[in-house]
Amino acid sequence: MSGLKIVLLSGGSGTRLWPLSRETYPKQFLPLAGEHSLLQATWLRVRDLPAVGAPLVVANEEHRFIVAEQLDALGTRADALILEPVGRNTAPAIAVAALHAMRDAGDPVLLVLPSDHVIADEAAFRAAVLKALSAAEGGALVAFGIVPNAPETGYGYIRARNTAAGPVGGVRPIEQFVEKPDLVTATAYLASGDYFWNSGMFLFRASRYLDELAHHAPEMLARCREALATATVDNDFVRLGRAGFEACPADSIDYAVMEKTEHAFVLPIDVGWNDVGSWAALTDISRQDADGNAHRGDVLSIDTRNTLAWSERRLIALIGLDDLVVVDTDDALLVAHRERVQDVKHIVARLKGDERPHARIHRKVYRPWGSYDGIEAGPGFQVKRITVKPGASLSLQLHHHRAEHWIIVTGQARVTCDESVFDLGTNQSTFIPLGAKHRLENVGIEPLELIEVQTGDYLGEDDIVRFEDIYGREKES
């Protein structure tokens, strides 16, 4: 068997699952269908395939530490974590992965997987990959088509040519890709047996994809080559050259290659696939009670049917309700009718238009050293709960507009404040004056928890000048 390289695409923002999923911490990093995040579950379902090495991951530059940490929690280190300075859709993302794979691993077969889907029958999916492998090794570009179980209007479809079999059993030539249909059309697709949901999962040799891209989208390939040639490498991080990638045309693999090539095939699969693309989709994959309710967290209900309720912290009580979605996070509450959950995107658009942070960040913000939770804020002050991982440290920095008070709750802290370096333990505190050059380190073996009280005339996160940073972040934020 030839080498099989897993390519995990992790560039999405997942805003259809707002307020749980947001730009800085989107759905692929959330445990929506079990104990693992969707990204982790994607890797776990394929890592034991034969001849699989470490994965290639293509991700938003802003998510690099989250991806690395989640893979590390599984005992996995990416072969390379390719960072996109801007989003350019799936065709360029797969191109830079293919170019990198050929540079380091000859000409492997690439299994390209979105990192935010759910597959219930993982054994059947692995068997499908092996079934399609010989076709991919022979030059086919194979898409995995989902056997539809309903006239779904929210997915694009792949129409297979009406033949008994393709070059390898079960793999059929693709007749056409079709856009999301209306209900009448989708019903006809379901009845025909020749149409399958487009899953966004693909299998092909790296060189074959690049050959097709050179023929059908040469400018895209040229810009991807430039972006990789000018990339900077920092440990596992491959930061694509900004100029080349920004100049790259943005397009999906469907439009750029699969709809144009004469070598496109589809393998129909029935594996319990779900793209978790909306709250309704999440309801479908969640455990439901006898009344069709899917509840997560502290939820009580009376005379309630067909609801999804998700609580991150507070109690949700539902009485006499039908067909509602209720999602409660620390800083936002969503209440929507199940038939209108697709309109969440309009709320997100409004938030962005009003420049409100709720579209982009959670109250709890993750950093490579840990996280902080904005507990309270008012005129001239802000309170945060900060968690620093064992052995981690914040950058050596200063602020022009704010002073900070630190109160240690648990753990062992080492504090640098201008020329002074000293340790603090539980119930001890210190003051960082405005303009002081300072750093916070966790020198213990347990997480360091502290309360930070900021005071000043401006408390934005961009009031920071970095002098030293072990995570390679820019000196000035």
Radius of gyration of CA atoms, rounded to a whole number? 24 Å
Global mean pLDDT: 92
- How many separate helices? 11
What is the terminal-to-terminal distance?
Answer: 48 Å
Structural class: alpha/beta
Number of strands: 30
What percent of residues are in strands? Answer: 25-35%
Going across the biggest sheet, name each strand in turn. 20-21-22-29-24-27
Low-confidence stretches: none
Helix content: 10-25%
Sheet bearing the most strands, described? 6 strands, antiparallel
Question: Which shape, going by the Cα principal axes?
Answer: globular
Topology diagram in text:
Layout: E1 4-10, H1 38-44, E2 56-60, H2 64-72, E3 80-84, H3 90-105, E4 109-114, E5 118-119, H4 122-137, E6 141-146, E7 157-160, E8 172-178, H5 183-192, E9 195-205, H6 206-216, H7 218-229, E10 232-234, E11 237-239, H8 242-246, H9 253-258, E12 264-269, E13 273-274, H10 279-285, E14 294-296, E15 299-302, E16 308-311, E17 316-319, E18 324-328, E19 333-337, H11 344-353, E20 364-367, E21 370-378, E22 381-388, E23 396-398, E24 402-410, E25 413-417, E26 420-424, E27 429-432, E28 438-442, E29 448-456, E30 465-468
Parallel strand pairs: 1-2, 1-4, 2-3, 3-11, 6-12, 14-16, 15-17, 16-18
Antiparallel strand pairs: 4-9, 5-13, 6-9, 7-8, 7-9, 8-12, 10-11, 18-19, 20-21, 21-22, 22-29, 23-30, 24-27, 24-29, 25-26, 25-28
Helix pairs in contact: 3-6, 3-7, 6-7
